[in-house]
Amino acid sequence: MTQAPEKGKANKALLKVIKEGLNLKRSQIELYKGETAALKVVRISEISLDELRQRVADALNQSG
What we know:
By secondary structure, the protein is of the alpha+beta class.
């Protein structure tokens, strides 16, 4: 998936992919750093670290 970096569209697309892939609510995810940089830092809240790790593992297993 590619999205041109115009007016934040690429960032919005990235957050949507992460949100859907990890089954998160929109309120649980935000772009914390890197709005205009290639390297992004995303903050995920309202979920335990163990639950987040499990969701990431599940998402990776589904993609392979």
